[in-house]
Amino acid sequence: MSKWGKWKRFLRKVKTKKTLITQAKAVAQNRCMSAHKARRVVDQIRGRSYEETLMLLELMPYRASYPIFKLVYSAAANASHNKSINEADSVISKAEVNGGTMMKRLKPQARGHSYPIKRPTCHITIVVSSKKKTDKISI
Q1: Strand intervals (E) in 1-139
Q2: 3-state secondary structure labels for all residues of 45-59
C-alpha cells in the first residue's frame, strides 16, 4: 500500500472537532472613493454587532459611510435569506477594502489644452457571521 493510502486510512479513524460558522458576504466593486478613506470607516465597524454597526454608520459624517451602510445591510439580508441567520445575532466578522483601478478622464481647457483627472476606486468586502457557533464532530 502506498504512503497516501496509509495516510488516508489514518485520517478516516481520527475524529476532529470543528466549529461550524455560517457566513454571508456582500461585495461592492469599483466604488468611486479612495481606499484610504473607506478604510477609515471600515476599521471602526470591524468586529461589531450588526445593529451597533448600523447605528454607527448612520451617524458618521464621512462620505464613505453611506455606501458601506448599504453594503452591511445587503450582507445581513444575504445572511438572513440564504443562510437563515437572524440579523440580531449577526456580527461583522470580516471587513476589508482593497484598491481598485484608476478612472482616467481628460478635462478640456481653453485653446485645445487638457489635463488628466485620475479618480481612485476601491473594492469593499463585508462578511457577516452568526454569534452562535455550533460544534460538530466529523468522521
Answers
A1: 16-20, 23-31, 90-99, 103-108, 114-119, 122-130, 134-138
A2: HCCCEHHHHHHHHHH
How far is Cα 93 from Cα 83, in angstroms, rounded to an integer? Answer: 15
Cα-Cα end-to-end distance for the chain: 22
pLDDT tier at 58, thresholds 50, 70, 90: very high
| CA 6 – CA 14 distance, rounded (Å) | 13
Take residue 130 and report the three cell numbers written for it: 452568526
Q: Give the dihedral sign, CA 4/9/14/19.
A: positive
- Determine the longest span between alpha carbons in the chain, in angstroms: 82
CA 95 – CA 77 distance, rounded (Å): 16
SS3 of the chain: helix, strand, coil, percent, to 5: 40, 35, 25
**Prediction pTM value:** 0.77
